[in-house]
Design goal:
Layout lengths: L1 E6 L6 H12 L3 E3 H10 L3 H11 L6 H11 L10 E3 L5 H8 L3 E9 L2 H9 L1 E4 L5 E3 L17 E2 L6 H15 L2 H6 L4 E5 L4 H12 L1
Parallel strand pairs: 1-3, 1-4, 2-3, 4-8
Antiparallel strand pairs: 5-6, 5-7
Helix pairs in contact: 1-9, 2-3, 4-5, 6-7
The structure holds adenosine monophosphate.
Length: about 210
């Protein structure tokens, strides 16, 4: 089994691209952020532990994340490959992952910090199906979301103060992971400050 990692700062478009690409690869999208938000909502022990880190834009401790991923990878749909979105975020997470699964491509979506803040602060999600929109750049279609039941939802950590903290966390703890994957020869950096379709095409051409 070989799998894909979508790498990049918060708001780079990893989730949007992962949703589009799973349709082509058949790999399930595994987003640790989505898993943690579900755990917080369900008030599970993991959710209770993760909540305050998430609210402050800090990383949830590595062991919590590694256990979550190890469990998720036992599911049948993960047997032939997966697409990670927002994981790994530290070198210890990447090292733990390498003992469970083989990664064939790391796609790094590069977006400057100034653009990130603007993107995240306008981000809205359909609470029914999870499709991500943006107030200005990707508005909800006039006739509503394609799921037919648009319910506007916003992430509680999508505000400027927490975004700045998430960016700081990204630069101090996650960016160093690029070298880990560059040394393995599987790191592909792409310009994420473009039209969504162009980015999807470039990712698909890298994967083929
Ligand atoms: P995301 O949805 O990927 O932006 O993640 C939202 C928040 O969940 C992050 O700001 C972190 O607090 C936490 N989180 C998500 N993925 C990870 C991870 N791989 N390692 C540590 N914390 C994570």
């Amino acid at each position: 089994m070989s799998s894909i990692v979508l790498f990049g700062p918060p708001g780079a478009g990893k989730g949007t691209q992962a949703q589009r690409i799973t349709g082509h690869t058949g790999y399930p999208q595994i987003s640790t952020g989505d898993m943690l938000r579900a755990a917080v909502t369900a008030a599970t022990p993991v959710g209770l532990e993760a909540k305050s880190f998430m609210e402050q834009g800090l990383l949830v401790p590595d062991q919590v994340i590694i256990d979550l991923i190890a469990d998720r990878l036992k599911h049948d749909d993960a047997k032939s490959g997966v697409m990670f979105d927002g994981f790994p975020r530290t070198v210890p997470q990447a090292q733990a992952l390498s003992s469970i699964i083989q990664i064939s491509h790391v796609i790094a979506i590069d977006v400057p910090d100034d653009a990130i803040v603007e993107r995240i602060c306008g981000r809205i999600t359909c609470g029914t199906c999870g499709t991500v929109y943006h107030e200005r750049f990707q508005p909800v279609p006039k006739d509503g979301c394609s799921c037919g039941n648009y319910v506007e939802s916003r992430r509680s950590d999508d505000n400027e103060e927490v975004v700045r903290s998430r960016l700081e966390t990204y630069h101090s703890q996650t960016s160093p992971l690029a070298d880990y994957y560059i040394n393995k020869g599987i790191f592909h950096k792409i310009d994420g400050h473009r039209n969504i379709d162009e980015i999807t095409s470039e990712i698909l051409s890298i994967l083929s």
